[in-house]
Design brief:
Blueprint lengths: L1 E2 L2 E7 L18 E7 L6 E7 L6 E2 L11 E8 L4 E11 L6 E3 L5 E2 L4 E11 L4 E6 L2 E2 L7 E9 L6 E9 L9 E10 L2 E6 L3 E2 L2 E2 L5 E6 L5 E2 L4 E7 L8 E4 L7 E3 L2 E4 L8 E6 L7 E5 L1 E2 L1 E6 L2 E6 L7 E6 L3 E7 L2 E2 L15 E9 L6 E22 L6 E10 L3 E6 L10 E2 L6 E8 L5 E8 L4 E8 L15 H46 L5 H16 L1
Parallel strand pairs: 2-7, 9-18, 20-27, 29-34
Antiparallel strand pairs: 1-2, 3-4, 3-6, 4-5, 6-7, 8-10, 10-14, 11-12, 11-15, 13-14, 15-16, 15-17, 19-21, 21-24, 22-23, 22-25, 25-26, 28-30, 31-32, 31-33, 33-34, 34-35, 35-38, 36-39, 37-38, 39-40
């Protein structure tokens, strides 16, 4: 190729090139020479060859080696003429990959500062350096983007080093920006580029917002919990200290970004705030500490006498609606207990338990151990067994603590040890003996507990005389039914007696009235007949 009419050779730095002399050899050639020319300098001869010799003589030129771009001239000399043919040699050297050196430790927003220097070395010819942010070319902008490109040449090698410094005013959005630089250079085949490795800088910017949060992030907080207040600012680097404002405290408490509270109570409910140390940029949150109080009256172990009244109350105080239920002897009750007249079956372990809705783990319970005491009560029954050979005597006993039962028989007064007892349920049980008395006897049932000793006796005829008493109590329900039926019969009998009495009174008044009328109408009758009637009336009245 030629440039401005010159034959041009493009070569890569470090290669060996051959330059032929492009002149036709003239007749009468004496010798040929090579020289190179540089602007504003005298030509330098570098090689000589005689037409009669094959060897080339090279001139001692110290700076001949490592020369770059020059104009080489081939000279052919005859006696009459000198012919010259110039050749332009262009040498290209790829620069090193650009590096960003002297990087800033961090960048501050709204402040023009040196970001770094992009350096690309050993280029020929000299190259150009440009800067990029996230792959987009950075153009110089007053007081925001200042680029300064410096080029230096090595006098020994003639190679260029390009150094471009970048002053930059970052914004908050530059926190994750990728900065890079690129060198553009020329090679034998044209323009080429090499990119540096990207660099991300730590961008410092002030806090613009403060946020307070409660840890752990639970929807509910209950008494006894441990909670941590965490305050954060959106600056970089984030603030390390804050002022925490606690309900009831007028001054802020200086602390790191966390403030811990252990075993919180209900009085911790309220508004919590935090701010920067200079009291700017504040945020707040409201904390509700849920609580649950249960008051059972009475509670613990309570001993009462049968028939007494016992008011029981389970009072709840809570931060939100609570669910209350009762348990007696491990069985959930349908209604709250209420005792107007205590019975033995009312004794037991009562638990009032409450939970707070939607607050996990907040549960309270209290226990009432109710003991119903009573003095021993005895009822004795007898019946002749179907075989007519024996009689069964039953001592029905009520009382708590459970009474001990003894039997005695009139005469010898010995203790009968063959009694059989039923199961003790709800303060009741029975002791039963079977006897075959040859004569009339009296049996005595003795029931005794810590409260009293009760004695009841029953006359029992000889086995030859059948006798029956009330049937044994099968159960509490049967006893109640029998009692109800007895009350009904007694009521009917009493009612009939009253009706008969009223009828008798009415009849007596009627008879009396009739007698008086007879005296006036029949006053002339003889005394004998009158006396008879009086006697009859008197007899009827007595009747």
């Amino acid at each position: 190729p030629s440039a401005l009419g010159l034959y041009t050779v493009n070569a890569v730095y470090g290669d060996t090139i051959t330059m032929p002399c492009r002149l036709e050899v003239p007749d009468g050639l004496m010798f040929g020479k090579w020289k190179y020319e540089m602007p504003n300098e005298s030509p330098v001869f570098i090689a000589f060859r005689s037409s009669t010799k094959k060897n080339v003589q090279y001139d001692d030129v110290p700076d001949y080696k490592d020369r770059e771009e020059k104009r080489f001239v081939c000279m052919l000399v005859t006696e009459d003429d000198v012919s010259e043919e110039p050749t332009l040699v262009k040498v290209f050297k790829q620069p090193s990959q650009p590096e960003i050196l002297h990087q800033a430790d961090f960048l501050e927003t709204e402040k023009l500062q040196m970001l770094g220097e992009c350096v690309s070395r050993d280029s020929y010819p000299e190259g150009n350096v440009t800067w990029y942010r996230n792959g987009r070319l950075l153009q110089p902008l007053e007081e925001a983007v200042v680029i300064d490109l410096q080029k230096s040449v090595n006098r020994t090698t003639g190679l260029f080093t390009m150094t471009s410094s970048l002053q930059y005013m970052p914004k908050k959005e530059d926190a994750n920006a990728r900065f890079s630089c690129m060198v553009t250079y020329y090679g034998p085949s044209g323009q080429k580029t090499i990119q540096s490795e990207p660099v991300v800088f730590d961008v410092h910017y002030p806090t613009e917002k403060v946020t307070i949060e409660v840890l752990p992030q639970s929807s509910t907080i209950k008494e006894g919990d441990n909670i941590t207040l965490k305050c954060s600012g959106n600056g970089n680097p984030p603030p390390q200290e804050f002022l925490f404002y606690i309900p009831g405290e007028t001054e802020g408490i200086r602390s790191s970004d966390t403030y811990m509270m252990t075993d919180v109570r209900r009085n911790a409910t309220g508004e919590y705030k935090c701010s920067l140390i200079d009291k700017s940029m504040m945020d707040s949150t409201t904390i509700t500490v849920h609580y649950l109080d249960l008051q059972l009256t009475p509670s613990g172990e309570v001993t009462k006498q049968i028939g007494e009244a016992l008011p029981v109350s389970c009072t709840i105080s809570s931060s939100r609606n609570a669910t209350v239920f009762w348990i007696k002897d491990n069985t959930r009750m349908q209604t709250s207990p209420s005792f107007s007249s205590l019975q033995y079956q009312d004794a037991g372990n009562y638990i009032c338990e409450t939970t707070l809705q939607e607050v996990e783990g907040l549960k309270k319970r209290k226990t009432l151990k109710l003991i119903v005491e009573g003095k021993p009560q005895i009822k004795m029954t007898k019946k002749t067994n179907t075989n007519k050979m024996s009689k069964t005597i039953v001592c029905h006993v009520e009382g708590f603590p459970k009474p001990a039962v003894q039997w005695t028989v009139t005469g010898s007064g010995s203790i009968i040890n063959k009694a059989k007892e039923t199961k003790y349920v709800n303060g009741r049980f029975s002791s039963k003996i079977v006897i075959a008395p040859e004569e009339n006897v009296t049996l005595t049932c003795i029931a005794e507990n810590e409260l009293e000793r009760t004695v009841t006796s029953l006359n029992v005829s000889a086995i030859s005389i059948p006798e029956y008493d009330e049937p044994e109590d099968r159960s509490d329900d049967n006893s109640e039914k029998v009692n109800d039926q007895a009350k009904l019969i007694v009521g009917i009998v009493v009612g009939l007696l009253l009706v008969a009495l009223v009828a008798g009174v009415v009849y007596w008044l009627y008879v009396k009235k009739s007698k008086t009328a007879s005296k006036h109408v029949d006053k002339d009758l003889g005394n004998i007949e009158e006396n008879k009637k009086l006697e009859e009336n008197n007899h009827k009245s007595e009747t």
